[in-house]
Each structure stands twice: as structure tokens, then as C-alpha cells.
Queue: 2 jobs
Job 1
Amino acid sequence: MAPEEPDYADDPSILNAEHVLRRIPPRHYVKKTGSEEWIVSSAAFDNDHKDGTPMSTARETLVPDVKVYLQPHAGYGLAKLPVGVARVDLKQRVTQTPSFPDEPEHTWVAGEKKKKTMQALRDAAPLIVQPVKISPAA
Amino acid sequence: MSSLAYALSDADLLTMPAADPGESAWEKQTRAEPSEWKVVARGRTRGVELVFSYEPPAWAAKTMGDLLELLELPEGWNTYNAQQVEPDVVRQASDVLFGVVEHQVPRPAIVPTAQGGVQIEWHGDADVEIEIRPNGSVGFLVDDDELDFRTCAEAIPAIHRKIRSLFR
């Protein structure tokens, strides 16, 4: 018998007032057009895989030290997304099931992510750690 | 639609060597004939030659280099199981980009997507995003206006009109 597909049902025990953290790769930190300002691309807030695997994040309350959390990911930034915005405004489901024993903080943000949704997730999630800036080829 | 014709050799994308392996030598832009512009873009391990029937933007070679760089990304490059960007997707992204921009359009940012696609984006007075997906479909977002196209061929004329009006 084939294993049951996870349904990523919303878990209300993860409160709207909580936050989840999303790693931002330097590749997704881009220069604004004709400006010295930088912005996170909405592409950083997509689901993980075209097979339907949702967007991975970390439950902030289970990440005691963001420096330690980011240590294996040199150059990466970290964005802090309010659960309430994802769940209420953007109709996403937030859950820690299925879970990873070696990654207890891992949290899914599941649901369809059209381009507008990804932009809204980006706009709601300020950077708490800035990624390294990769300048475009000169 | 204006004649935004350009050509990219399929073979070149995979076989044309970089001039100096390990270094980035991006740009060589020459006007070959009165109605033809040739642009050679070289990445670290690959290069391409593009032929335009219109004067391409000054950043054409650099941005084609940015696109070629995406082919170097390993699977899982974003630490979240991201897909590799395949040559076909880069080819389609190049088709869309140089099918919708004109000389005066500013240089866009090029980013890979977790699904193995490519996103072309401008962040200025308006936020503009063009996403080329691995299945060949194209998403386009300008501010609140979101459009989806089944193919690049369908997307190019519609996006060209929008881009032209945005970057006059």
C-alpha cells in the first residue's frame, strides 16, 4: 500500500501572534532598479517543490538563537513572517506535521502561492538578518 | 508588435566555451550589419551568441551572463530542496526577456525559482515580475495585475506591450 500523502492541515495550536522564520538565499536578494537599495525577491516565498511540498520555515519560539540556526548557511538572511498574515490574510495553512525529528522547529506554510501571494508574504516578512549581497556582473 | 527578433543558438548554450575558464568575461557587443547586432555573453563555463534585429539594451550580454550562471546551481541550492534550472528554461527565459524589452528598458534582476524556473524582475516605480516555469508557462505580475500564459509565444506580445508602456 502506498504511504498516505500528508495533507498539511492547519494547526491552530500555532497561534496567529507567533512568527515563522524563512531563510533567504543571497540569490534572492536583488538590487532595486536604478537604485542602491536592495529587496528580497518574492521568489524566496514559494513552495519548496513542484511535487506539492509546501514552503519550509522555522517556528520562531523553537529557535533560541538565530545565529546558531544560520551557522550552517553562510551568507543567508532570515525573514520573520507573522503567522496571522499567512493564515488569515493569505489563506495559508501553518503546521508542523509531518515533522522532522532532527529539526523540531521545522514548520510548513502550505497552500497555493500565486505570484501576488508570494509578494504579500515577502512584504509581510521583514529581514531580521540581511543576506550577503551578490552584485550583478559589472 | 515591433520586430524584436533575436536568435540564440541551441548548441551554443551548452558547447561554447568561456574565454577564460574560471573568470567572468561577459560582454562583447558589435554591430555586424546595419540591421543586425551580435552579442556574445560568456559565463564561467558556458557562452552564447545572440543575434538581434534591433539595438539590444546595453546590458544584454551581462544579463545573458546572469542567466547562464543559473545553470551552475546545484539541486537544493536554496537549502530547501530547490530544483536545478535546466538549459531549456534558460533558453525560454532568454526568448521572453529579449522578446519583451527594448533598448531603453533598464536592466532587470534575474533570480532562480525553487521550482527550477527563472524570474525576471524590476523593482522601481512599479514592481514587475516575469516567471518562466519549467513546463514552459509564464506568469506575469505588474503591481496588482497578474496574468498567466500557457506558453512563451503567447506571453511575449502581451508582456511586450505592458513593458513598453511601463518603460517609455
Job 2
Amino acid sequence: MPRLRTLWTAALSMAAAAAAIYLAIAPFHDPN
Amino acid sequence: MPSPIMLILMILPVAVAVVVAGLRSGGWRALLQLRLRHRWLVGGAAAVQFLRLSDPEWASVLLTPLRGALPVLAIWALVVAFVLANLPGLHRSGRAALSVFLAGMTMNFAAILANGGMPYSVPAARRAGLSPAQIDVEVLGHPHLTAESRLAPLADVLPVPPLHAVASVGDLLIFGGLSWLLISLTKRRTPVPAPPEPALLGGN
């Protein structure tokens, strides 16, 4: 299922991009 | 669990990219070509952040050095490594977008290293709609911006009233850089033509 694999990889990449935003902002602004 | 503000910041670039992709011919197909490699680096950074937030006793050896800056440094290094690992595989505008992201993250990190926390402007916090009670409580890692603060332009000085938050220039670059990356990926690109087949040697 190459199409499903493409979709899965793109979804994981977008999730990684969204997580990168969180990891780039949150640790520098929280009270820890 | 990220705060509601953080969730909005995380989801918005992806949502905007999906909408833009829908408006562009072949946009979704182009967006589905997104291949960010070495995603385990982001997973590693997320694991460090999870440790910081849960703060288990056994991890204090890792979490306390440099007044708590060591795990923040580790997160910064892992995300920077993730960005650098993905730069070569992107087209020119994608590389520029990730460079903007990297610059923003480094600016935030510099402000924190210089001040032992991210200073924020009290007038900006008032304009953003934070209550006097919220502002009066001095939060560890979030000192007020004063005349003694270093790298003041890189601190949280920009009010964002809809989010009741104060942001830094670095935050804008982080958010803008990744939004730019995702939107640029919705553009259908002409594939680079394959080089011509080498001429056969030793022909007649």
C-alpha cells in the first residue's frame, strides 16, 4: 500500500513539525 | 499536556497549510510529499520535555544541572539537529523557512541564557490583557523585564491580546518559519530533469 505509506509519512512529518513548534517555544517559557 | 494557547500555535500552521493546499491545484498531492527525516530527534526532545514537566526524583541528576538549563539545552540541541538534518532534502524556499525557525529558536535561547529565564515586559503583559494579580506574581524562569535585563529586544515584549500572552521576536520567527515551510510545500514543483544518459563507450 504505497499510497497509505505516503499518507502515513506525511502525517508523521506534520506531527513532527507541530511538535517542533511546541518544543521550540514551551521549554523556554515555562516556569521550570 | 500543552496549554490551549500552545495547542493553537501547534495546529494553526498545519491547518493553514491544508487550507492553502486545497486552494492550489495539486496542493494536497504536493503537501503529501512532505518527508521530514530523523523524527526520532523530535521524539527525544519531547521525552526530555516530558521529564521536565513530570520531574521524577530519579531524573533530578539530569534536570538540575546549570540551574535547570541543561535539559533546555538538550531540547534546543535535539531540535536544531532535526532542522539541520532536514535542510539538505528541501527546496530553496523550504531551507529558508527552516533557517528562520532556527534563528527564532536560537534568539529565545540566547535571551534565556543571558538572563537565567525569559524576561517579559510588564506593559506588554498589561496590553495583552493579563490581570494585575497574574503580573504581580513573579514566576521562576519568567522575570520582569528591567533596565538590567540583557538582550531586552529578544525578550517577551510583544503583546498578543487574543491569546492573553506576551511573545518574543523569536516566537514569531519560530511560528512564521514553520508556517512558511508547510505553505511552501503546497506548491507544485516542476521535477528536476534527470541528467542525460551517458553515451555508451566503445561503440562502433
